[in-house]
Amino acid sequence: MSESVIDAFRYCPRCGTPVENPGTVPLVCKNCGFQHFFNPIVAVGGIVTDPEDRVLLVIRARDPGKGKFGVPGGFVDRGETLEEALIREVVEETSLKAIETSYLCSFPNDYTFKGITAPVTDAFFRVEVESFEPLKAEESEISSFHLCVPGENELSNMAFESNRRALETFLK
């Protein structure tokens, strides 16, 4: 069972006063005036292709979406640009060095972690890598890879709807 991050705030994070109307946006503390708008978290995803135009999909090693397909990517850290986060995530998850990135599209997503669901905006990029050697999975996040021209099997088994929509955009 998961609950929205919006509903999880039952006390003001500044002064600890109970929230009068949990689940409202913005959250407004009647005691100290603190406001929070629950804006989405930002994440990136890379559509990496090989010289034969096959897409590199990852198979997730953990939830959410354990055992399902995804694209290399992850959350943008404080102080990072989208491109910096993308390059870092591609290296962390695949050991591949990105040499060129170009923006493709973005889609909303929901990410559930430890029972709390937060809104996310996923920004997707085309990624050119220096080489596919060495392709090595970050075992705590990725169980294996799948190189393919994504078809119905892959698209219907994506860990995140936003990843599916980005691949469909890419394939057009």
TrEMBL record:
Q: Which InterPro entries match?
A: NAD-cap_RNA_hydrolase_NudC, Nudix_hydrolase, NUDIX_hydrolase-like_dom_sf, NUDIX_hydrolase_dom
Domain Nudix hydrolase residues, every copy: 39-171
Per UniProt, the keywords (alphabetical) are: Hydrolase, Magnesium, Metal-binding
User: Any one cellular component term from GO for this entry?
Assistant: cytosol
Cofactor(s) needed by this chain: Mg(2+)
Q: Quote one Gene Ontology molecular function term.
A: metal ion binding
A Pfam family matched by this chain, by name? NUDIX
Q: Which GO terms describe its biological process?
A: NAD+ catabolic process; NADP+ catabolic process
What EC number(s) does this enzyme carry?
3.6.1.22
Q: Which PROSITE patterns match?
A: NUDIX
What's the domain of life for this entry?
Answer: Bacteria
UniProt-recorded name of the protein: NADH pyrophosphatase
Give the organism's phylogenetic lineage.
Bacteria, Pseudomonadati, Planctomycetota, Planctomycetia, Planctomycetales
Gene this chain is encoded by: nudC
